[in-house]
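Appendix B. Chain record.
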Amino acid sequence: MAQKMNSRITARQAILVLAWLPVHLFVLPWLLIRLIPPGSAILTEQGLLNYTTTLHVLLYGIGALYMLVVLWRFFRDDFDPIWEHPFRTLLMVIGAYLLSIFGQTLVSLLLDAIEITAGNENNEIVSEMAVSNIGPTAAMSVFLAPIVEESIFRAGVFGLLRRKSRVLAYLGSILLFGLYHVFEAALDDPIQLVFILQYVPPALALAYVYEKNDSIWASIFLHMLTNGVAMYALVTLQ
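Structure tokens predicted for this chain:
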């Protein structure tokens, strides 16, 4: 029998969180492109932010602020289980990360075996951003994106579906999380849909630590760790 979860957003919060997904995917990018003409760059103390980095940082920055405002009480209450069992949470996050890496390795072997020659365009875009603007890209990937994506896919999708079916909650949140990362590239090249498989291990790990720790912060910390290690690897390879 599945454990009872105390971590859950209200019906009003769920509407606001899930309503942000189409805003994040379509409305806000459309507005940003019109407010910031293509080819624009922002001058900072570290240099110029290229156009793609600028759009992504603004997109996730606005999204993170929105989630913090809408879910402030939820985020505050979900700290309690973390404070009560900090070492258990830490060990579970690290263990889930290692299992996720193992799963991603198996997926990579599978893609090699079926001779997928295309690359994951989402990963390639992030890599290009990191090469030119590592600081802002790392800030976006490690701090902003986890807040936005965990609010939507774990607190929103997983949390709501789990009230009806645990299996459906895992399947739905994993599928939507993977589709979210590849759908834009798949509009031009349908082969990109196969890369949903690459997001299955991390999405499964994120949902699992959220459920077992009964706190959205567990999945946020795991998401931060995953993206942080990826950013570190990109820096060392430069």
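Further analysis of this model is presented in Appendix C.
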